[in-house]
């Protein structure tokens, strides 16, 4: 008989943000995220207690996915960041740091929740207007006629992930590969609605990063026993292809969980093999050159097909089915590919299937010295390519290196200085409350810019263009120092002050007629969304009055 346990009452936390334990956890989470931010961000290692896989990363996606939060409010924050990165691939750490700082600053200034919520809503609308407007000083247009801005965007994303462990030459190489893969994924000359192609990634461990490459079409492992001479015998393409997504192993156990009634004297395995061989005969009669299967192909059928000069590829896996279909041109019941090519990369022998049409499918072969670095590199490259795709929707990029944050904060502070009284009245909050909210908001933006520095150096802001600076005290070169994003060159009369210290408000000067190109760019769409969701979530968290937890 089962024992009956008395149901425990739910645990209720009143005013969670007044609870010092919860506030400490929020500060800890902010600290974890801000110490991982940017090119010199510190890596995080995640272990489990049963000696499983060790993850070394500084990306928010990998970090938050693997860390279970015990606190419901933190769980909520973590989920919102993960949702953002799933859609936009970038600015997850920015979103987390800004949101947590906004919550902490609201507490620090002792702002009424309702006043903070109304003011932040207003301020984020002003940010949106500024960032989307023509006079925005922190936005650059992505020029699709040259690869420079695409490569710069990819480059910034890779350099901000130090766990990829790349030197500057390798970073440059991988950035161009990403831009190349992105260009391959855009369909050419297709009438009507165009869809992006896809990029398949193959990771090869133990090889130098400089061996990484991108190929049009699809690369698969070279099937067993296929020799270059076999391909030569096939002559020139196009080649007829047949593709199966069901198992051709002839294994009766794969029929499923059903009861079979078998007549005496019948051998089902043999019967199945006969059927498979009939299929083989048909394929040979129809002059098929490539026989591909998602799952296993019976060895006897494989042997028969090879004997008749057909190339067999088995165990393709579900992920390759769609790209495989896309590289082929349909021809009656079959498909066509343009040709085959052998490539060897370290220990892997790969067979390239050349597409018969502008299929917009490419394969990126990524090589790295070990598994952990390769894993981070694969994830970063896939995200960077996604960010490049987002530029087709909104062809802009934001200045990186903390300059967008300092510029935006300066603009918002300056704009609201003269209008604070009327804005506060319109929002129904007091003048001082509104000014405090502006300060909390802008100092949270500054906090993100400050998080880029991990070596104890001062962060500065110049009082003309409002870009972010780090004094380059170690530089031995005579090259002129530039701001965080690389757009503004230093000069003796450019006045600077430490970030997050009181200074007079000013309107940032719009930088025109400069030959400099920003070196570091962030995704426009990703940052805009991160900014909006961060404010929305901060308002939500600040508004939580009770947490009721069922502990049964
Ligand atoms: Zn800058």
From TrEMBL:
Coiled coil: none annotated. It comes from the Eukaryota. GO terms for biological process: chaperone-mediated protein complex assembly; cilium assembly; developmental process; protein folding. It holds the Pfam family Cpn60_TCP1. One of its GO terms (cellular component) is nucleus. InterPro entries: Cpn60/GroEL/TCP-1 (IPR002423), GroEL-like_apical_dom_sf (IPR027409), GROEL-like_equatorial_sf (IPR027413), MKKS (IPR028790), TCP-1-like_intermed_sf (IPR027410). One of its GO terms (molecular function) is unfolded protein binding. PANTHER family: MOLECULAR CHAPERONE MKKS, SYNDROMES PUTATIVE CHAPERONIN-RELATED. This is T-complex protein 1 subunit alpha. It comes from Anabarilius grahami (Kanglang fish).
